[in-house]
Write a structure and sequence with these properties.
about 120 residues, 3-stranded mixed sheet
């Protein structure tokens, strides 16, 4: 599901390719920007940086479907993160967005830049 993209600085990003990259490329940056406003309070990074948004697509009526995971299965901030993700996605899209929680287990390698977790160690 993830695909590496070359950015202008020749640094490879571990950016996840969502369904809208192909179907509605004009929405990608808008949705990434809006969803980046949702911060995981324990790690201090946004849900896009962390790779928690696994896919974003639109149905035939333009309704959004966002598939996501949390950093831990019983994340104490999980309900708030999911609620804020829904709000930000709907504001960005201007339409209703359904959130689907996936059973996938998150790991730091899913982050767009896994080096953010090196902490100089």
């Amino acid at each position: 599901m993830s695909q590496e993209f070359e950015n202008p600085n020749n640094k490879k990003d571990n950016q996840i390719k969502w369904a809208i990259h192909d179907s509605n490329p004009d929405l990608v940056e808008k949705m990434r920007t809006k969803l980046s406003e949702v911060i995981d309070p324990e790690l201090g990074y946004d849900i896009v940086q962390l790779g928690l948004v696994r896919d974003f697509s639109l149905d035939e009526n333009g309704k959004g479907k966002l598939k996501m995971i949390l950093t831990t299965p019983f994340c104490p901030y999980g309900p708030e993160i999911v609620a804020m993700t829904k709000i930000k996605a709907e504001v960005g899209l201007g339409k209703e967005v359904e959130i689907e929680m996936l059973p996938e287990v998150w790991n730091p390698g899913m982050a767009e830049d896994p080096d953010i977790f090196s902490w100089g160690l």
